[in-house]
Design a protein that fits this description.
Layout: H1 9-19, H2 28-39
Length: 44
């Protein structure tokens, strides 16, 4: 997952919380990238 200094890494954590709850708005491929990033975050 790529971000700039203008995008907080907490954004990803918030989306992850959504998709593990009652919301499902990401395509499967994007969800897989997010789940991988949550498991092993990297920062630019």
């Amino acid at each position: 997952m790529v971000k700039s200094k203008l995008v907080s890494p907490y954004s990803a954590q918030t989306v992850y919380k959504d998709i593990t709850g009652d919301f499902a708005y990401l395509p499967q491929r994007d969800e897989a990238v997010l789940r991988d990033w949550i498991a092993n975050p990297y920062y630019l």
